[in-house]
Amino acid sequence: MVMSDELASAKNVVNTISLLGIDMIENAASGHPGIVLSAAPMMYSLYAKNMNIFPKDPKWFNRDRFVLSAGHGSALLYSTLYLAGYDIKIEDLKEFRRLGSIAAGHPEYGLTPGVDATTGPLGQGFANAVGMAIAESHLAARFNKRNYSIIDHYTYVVCGDGDLQEGITWESISLAGHLGLSKLIVLFDSNDVQLDTLTSSTTSDNIKEKIEACNWNYIKVGVGTSIPLISNAIVKAKACSKPTLIEIKTVIGRGTTNEGTTKVHGSPLGEAETIKLRKKLSWKKPEFVISSSISSFFRRKIMDRCRPNYENHKALMENYKERFPEDYALLQEFLSSKRDLNISSDILNLNLSKELSTRSISGKILNELTKKYKNMIGGSADLSSSTFVKGPDGDFSRENRLGRNINFGIREHAMGAIANGIALHGGLIPFISTFFTFSDYLKPAIRLSALMKLPVMYIFTHDSIAVGEDGPTHQPIEQLTSLRCVPDLNVMRPCSTNEVIGAYDIALKSDVPTALILTRQPIPTLLNASMDIRKGAYIIKEEENPKQKLDFIMLSCGSEVDLCIKTATDFKEKNVRVVSMPSMYLFEKLSPSQKKAILPDNVPVIAVEMGSPMSWYKYAKYVYGIENFGYSGRIDEVKKEAGFTSRQLWEYAKGCT
Q1: Mind listing the pLDDT tens digit for each residue in 454-494?
Q2: Which of 87, 192, 480, 520 has the highest CB neighbour count under 10 A?
């Protein structure tokens, strides 16, 4: 059979994508050639024939999103983006995996044009894509009018066998199928090989039956090199009312001596093998040299199809602006990062004479915020009645896309990564919640929130051993230290009403993720607590004799601030200052002189927290904390057993000075 000119040109593009990726890996002396060679045809099918994109405007809001969940295949993505006409130069590809390069070892959001998510930890990208699909469907329901589909795009994923072994992936698949996210299309690079071994050594899952049981559409493409078959499968997926997984049978490291084996997964091919491959593909160009006719063909295929869509959408937006000015203004507000809290304790209608849990204060603030900002969306991992975190306007569902409460179910890990996807999509502010001890279940997603600098709000309640009767399994000890170690994550543990209000004000305006750590138990309202916690710490109780030498400083956050104030008030033998430090992250942004005004040199500091002491030694020589897993019992009994009464704290403090 004679190959058509178009198919011949497409094959040349596929080979160019593959060999350019191999050149990058060989030049870097590291990388993953297997997926570069197996998945290049599906990348061509997506970019040349199906995805609605505009490389000259990579942030175009109505573009189709693409997530390379198998992020180790970054060389495949970079070579595709370069050939597609994104603002990437051949010199950038030559710097693959080198310090300062925009072509990092794994795709990084915000670093490389055309990269819609930071991926690499398997399963995270897949779950991000579910969040993107949720965002698209919610915004479409809110803003689209008859003949004005201004938000109408797909989310595409390329994943591998490894992604489909991760628990987070199946959490996400289950929720996406339940919600009927029909604009989510996953291309599964199914080559039956992973890093150590063949997949037959690790799993015997029937992917078709498993995915269909989760209410997904399943399509199989038996020949992974066939661009027509792959493209036809994508067209069929678009016509389905369910999310779709297209299993594409490929050969890892296709065309190499070791194709189909683990040897081509994560190691460069080597010079001799690369020469053989080039000969096999009849490729005469030297490394990093490509034919201008090939790149022109690929770019023309993309632009001929996408430019009219892009220009029509721009015109549609102008007409929409005139026809629906209020909705247009609201959409621009959604896309803006300018937000203010403007909430006081009066608006919240709180009885400040009563003891209140910070989770209940948080719930009231969140209710006010979601009334004001219609683009706030989120929910809890089956705990909204306990964390008081629930979105308004009903549950987000296939019947109610305008609902702003997402019932994540008991899927904490997916919840975190889905929130990242919502933030990555743009236009919405995600908030999510669970008990603090369960933050461990979504730690990898939190880490990626911080790495991508996504303003996700993590609202964690039941913050200490004061959980009481539920016992050590539900009493967080090491979690605060763990999260405080994450770069670009603002962990805030407020001590009273005003600090909770201040924490939300900061979170709402933040360009990094926030973790709010809140109490289950009611605690006294500290009227001298400040709403202005932008410095991360402040003097909440002055020493009794300001003109005399300070004996020591008690440093704390959360419910323990009240304990410190009570201790300093009840035992006046010493001249004691109490400092509330709700955010170490913000405190670290202060100048040395600003820090010293709060925590002066040569004054002993005793840090107090019902958790691991490790994160406090940066500020305090002495730390009164907990280094076991807690106790099961009534709150007062548990606190006394752990030593957190004013008498016990004072006895410790006296021994430190």
Answers
A1: 999 999 999 999 998 999 999 999 999 999 999 999 999 99
A2: 480
Share above pLDDT 70 across residues of the chain, in percent, rounded to a whole number: 99
Angle at 118 (CA atoms; ends 195, 247), nearest 5 degrees: 50
DSSP-derived letter for residue 645 is S
Could you give phi then psi for residue 435, rounded to 5 degrees?
Answer: -65, 145
Q: What is the pLDDT of residues 95-130, one digit of tens each?
A: 999 999 999 999 999 999 999 999 999 999 999 999
Distance between CA 70 and CA 212 in Å, rounded? 22
Question: Taking a C-beta distance cutoff of 8 angstroms, is the pair 116, 136 a contact?
Answer: no
Structure tokens at 176: 């996406």
The amino acid present at 623, given as its one-letter code, is: V
Which residues lie across from 429 on neighbouring strands? 376
- Best CA proximity match to 375, nearest among 118, 151, 583, 114: 151
- Any bridge partners for residue 68, and if so which? 158
Query: Which DSSP state fits 2?
Result: P
Place of tokens 């005793």: 606
d(CA 375, CA 331): 9
Contacts of 4 (CB under 8 A, 6+ apart): none
Angle made by CA atoms 192, 195, 200, in degrees to the nearest 5: 35
CA distance 53 to 544: 65
- Tracing tokens 């693409």 back to the chain, one arrives at 66
Residues known to be catalytic: 412
Please, what's the b/e burial string for 140-154 (b: 16 or more CB within 10 A of its CB; e: otherwise)? bebbeeeebebbbbb
Backbone φ and ψ of 25, nearest 5°: -65, -45
Identify which of 387, 385, 344 has the alpha carbon closest to the alpha carbon of residue 368. Answer: 344
Q: Is 580 helix (H, G, I), strand (E, B) or coil?
A: strand
358-517 is a CATH 3.90.1150.10 domain: no
Q: At what angle do helices 5-28 and 271-280 cross, to 10 degrees?
A: 180
Section 489-515 average pLDDT: 96
Identity of the amino acid at 490: N
How many residues does the structure list for the chain?
657
Predicted confidence (pLDDT) at residue 343 exceeds the cutoff of 80: no
- Could you check whether 358-517 and 538-656 share the same CATH topology? yes
Neighbours of 52 (CB within 10 A): 17
Which tokens belong to 62? Answer: 């109505």
| The two three-digit tokens of residue 98, written as one number | 């080198």
pLDDT, tens digit (0-9, with 9 covering 90-100), for 256-311? 999 999 999 999 999 999 999 999 999 989 999 999 999 999 999 999 999 999 99
Alpha carbon of 206 to those of 164, 203, 213, 222, 491: distances in Å? 11, 9, 11, 16, 42
CATH number of the 5-308 domain: 3.40.50.970
Which tens digit of pLDDT belongs to each residue from 59-88?
Answer: 999 999 999 999 999 999 999 999 999 999
Boundaries of every domain in the chain:
5-308, 358-517, 538-656
Q: How far is C-alpha 182 from the chain's CA centre? A: 22
Three-state DSSP class for residue 491: strand
C-alpha dist (Å) from residue 440 to 130, 473, 628: 21, 12, 17
- CA neighbor of 498 nearest in space, from 648, 338, 361: 361
DSSP state of 182: T
**pLDDT interval class at 1 (50, 70, 90):** very low
